[in-house]
Specification:
32% strand; mainly beta; 6-stranded mixed beta sheet; Sulfite Oxidase, Chain A, domain 2; 12% helix; 188 residues; 5 helices; 5-stranded mixed beta sheet
Length: 188
């Protein structure tokens, strides 16, 4: 596939993996850490880190695109497919959106259908090694078809909602959808 089919408009390639985030890198305590699936579900589900990492693992190779203008091709991620998590919770029929809750109160919002792509996962490994704390360890959402701020670091909860509401950066003017191919960087 040619580069023009892999690199969206307004992006430049990088070999580096820049570190951008809001707030300090959180400490990970495997004893107290958990991942909550809540909101419009029949019953809330909570995973410990050991329970989460015991679920079937998937590996994807994806191009990622940051709203600041860089793109990194062929990144390798391993973790639990979003669809795998959905097999362990019963959503109520009105659940159409997901608010991703992370450490330090960071959030990002996505339509549920965007998370159902085969290549969306909650990653704990990157390039055949454990994910580093600066890049989201112990758990990072990876949504390759959206700008990378939607691939939230340090995920702690998935809230299923009937109505969309803006996450952290979306409240500060970032585009609600974040499609890099449409250059949906900022709200108009």
């Amino acid at each position: 596939m040619t580069l023009d089919k892999r690199v969206p408009p307004g992006q430049r390639l990088t070999e580096r993996f820049p570190v951008l985030h809001e707030g300090p890198v959180p400490k990970f305590d495997p004893v107290t850490w958990n991942l909550r699936l809540f909101g419009l579900v029949e019953q809330e589900v909570v995973f410990t880190y050991d329970q989460l990492t015991a679920l079937p693992t998937v590996r994807i190779v994806a191009d990622v695109h940051c709203v600041t203008g860089w793109s990194k091709l062929d990144t390798v991620w391993e973790g639990v497919a979003f669809r795998e998590l959905l097999n362990r919770v019963r959503l109520l029929p009105q659940a159409k959106y997901v608010m991703v809750h992370c450490e330090h109160g960071y959030t990002t919002n996505l339509p549920l259908e965007a998370l159902l792509d085969d290549n969306v996962l909650l990653a704990y490994r990157y390039n055949d090694a454990p994910l580093t704390p600066e890049h989201g360890y112990p758990l990072r959402l990876v949504v390759p078809k959206r700008y990378f701020w939607k691939s939230a670091k340090w995920v702690r909860g998935l809230e299923f909602m009937a109505q969309d509401r803006p996450g952290f950066w979306e409240q500060y003017g970032y585009h609600n959808n974040g499609d890099p191919w449409k250059e949906e960087r900022y709200a108009r």
